[in-house]
Write a structure and sequence with these properties.
alpha/beta; D-Maltodextrin-Binding Protein, domain 2; 2 domains; five-stranded mixed beta sheet; four-stranded mixed beta sheet; 18% strand; globular; disordered N terminus
Length: 320
């Protein structure tokens, strides 16, 4: 009996090692790296996509967009799709060595997010938010600009606030407060906020809405959400780490726009295109994004139109 069992065991090992028991079809697997702020939208888009494409396996990783870009660069197992909270991350970090193009697909805006238990939650408004956040007994948080576009945009909002409220010292006061609460990506701050460790965080409006958190809507000149205020936002800039230590990027304030691409090392180009066609469709992915608080911006201009896969060019416009 033992010999029979051993024979079955040995056969199983041999079959597995030969791949005969491995029904996994790489052509039906999709590996996505995406911005932390897209975690819930990607989940909902993935569910809707799989209803149309049963049998596909989709694996996802959420990162601050810059950390995600470094993951694309360094990853031995190639990512098939990269979704960034800032299309300029693709421009600065992936093109031309790791990707050839991007398509802009959604917008967002900055907000001050809190809970009903946050100190002075009943008092905060568009005129006094910065004063409340600077009070000694108030704890605030933001994400790391070297890892996450939300961190960069928090810096821009603070610097624009200095101009808007005519207070030159305000940006430094905001950015030097509670630096121990800086986290790799913006969604890492939510648990700290909900546990009462933090009173207020700089966060995207869409993420606040998806988590049913109260938030203060900032004036358009501070929210980075109005495309008509591009010249105003351009007054501020910051320097962040690039693709590796020692490499720096100078980033300039601009309206918030998300971007996506297919990295060069994708092993499933056709499936990646099929998924992005779903994401960019007004009736499918864009509808889901808009229901979750992110306006679509498809089609938008791109300088890389001719390098976009033909079936996806309908979602972009060639820059004049």
């Amino acid at each position: 009996m033992k010999n029979v069992f051993f024979c079955f065991f040995l056969a199983g090992v041999l079959l597995t090692s030969c791949g005969l028991w491995d029904s996994r079809d790489p052509r039906k697997e999709l590996y996505i790296i995406h911005a932390g702020s897209l975690t819930y939208p990607v989940k909902k888009i993935k569910e809707a996509f799989l209803e149309e494409h049963p049998g596909i396996i989709i694996r996802t990783e959420a990162w601050g967009s810059k950390a995600g870009a470094r993951r694309v660069i360094d990853l031995e197992t190639p990512a098939d799709v990269y979704l960034s909270a800032d299309y300029m991350v693709i421009e600065h970090m992936l093109i031309p060595d790791h990707a050839s193009w991007y398509i802009k697909f959604a917008a967002n805006e900055m907000a001050i997010v809190y809970t009903e238990d946050s100190r002075y939650a009943q008092e905060i408004n568009q005129q006094n938010w910065h004063e409340i956040m600077l009070r000694p007994n108030v704890s605030i948080g933001r994400s790391n600009p070297d890892h996450d576009p939300c961190g960069v945009r928090s810096v821009f909002t603070a610097k624009l606030a200095g101009i808007y409220y005519e207070d030159e010292e305000l940006p430094e006061k905001l950015l030097s407060k509670d630096t121990q609460n800086i986290r790799p990506k913006e969604t890492d701050l939510i648990a700290l906020l909900e546990s009462g460790h933090l009173d207020y965080i700089f966060l995207y409006r869409s993420v606040a809405e998806q988590h049913n958190l109260p938030y203060l809507e900032l004036p358009p000149k501070l929210s980075l959400g109005d495309p008509d205020l591009a010249d105003w936002y351009r007054q501020v800039e910051t320097t962040t780490m690039g693709t590796s230590p020692g490499h720096e990027i100078t980033e300039i304030g601009q309206p918030m726009v998300y971007g996506l691409t297919i990295p060069h090392r994708s092993e499933n180009q056709e499936l990646a295109e099929t998924f992005l066609e779903f994401v960019l469709s007004q009736e499918k992915g864009i509808r889901i994004l808009e229901e979750l608080g992110q306006p679509g911006v498809v089609p938008s201009y791109t300088p890389y139109f001719d390098k976009i896969p033909e079936r996806l060019q309908q979602f972009a416009e060639k820059e004049q």
